[in-house]
């Protein structure tokens, strides 16, 4: 049977509902918020658009990646696999395309 990767609830509830949300009434142009030095250079100069700051980070893979690891050797949860008990065989295929010694 096909294996279905379950990516729901792969982050801590506190991260989804608190840590990765902007504060209430957040306005990046209010003057109460300090942009990083040279922010306008990074964002294309005078045509800066405040919409680059998301209201909420909802990508659970990104949230997991951004969490600080407690130990130098770590893993990050990508998904859960819900299978019935039994014996399974896993085949892993990995390939990468190189063009003129550059990753594509």
Note the main sheet: 2 strands, antiparallel
Q: Taking strands numbered 1, 2, ... along the chain, how are they ordered across the largest sheet? A: 1-2
Radius of gyration of CA atoms, rounded to a whole number: 20 Å
- Provide the low-confidence segments as ranges: none
What fraction of residues sit in β-strands?
Answer: 5-15%
Properties at a glance:
104 residues, alpha+beta, two-stranded antiparallel ribbon, two-stranded antiparallel sheet, 3 helices, 17% helix, 8% strand
Structural overview:
With 104 residues, this protein is α+β, with helices and mostly antiparallel strands. Helix content is 17%, strand content 8%. It contains three helices and four strands. The chain has helices at 13-19, 39-42, 60-66, and strands spanning 5-6, 80-81, 98-99, 102-103. It has a two-stranded antiparallel ribbon. A two-stranded antiparallel sheet has the order 3-4. A hairpin with a 2-residue loop joins strand 3 (98-99) and strand 4. The protein is extended.
């Amino acid at each position: 049977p096909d294996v279905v990767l379950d990516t729901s609830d792969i982050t801590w509830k506190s991260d989804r509902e608190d840590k990765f949300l902007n504060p209430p009434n957040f306005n990046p142009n209010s003057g109460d918020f300090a942009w990083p030095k040279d922010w306008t250079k990074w964002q294309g100069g005078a045509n800066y658009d405040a919409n680059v700051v998301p209201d909420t980070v909802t990508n659970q893979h990104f949230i997991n990646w951004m969490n600080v690891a407690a130990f130098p050797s770590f893993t990050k949860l990508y998904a859960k696999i819900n299978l019935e008990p039994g014996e399974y065989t896993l085949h892993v295929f990995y390939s990468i395309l190189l063009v003129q010694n550059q990753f594509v």
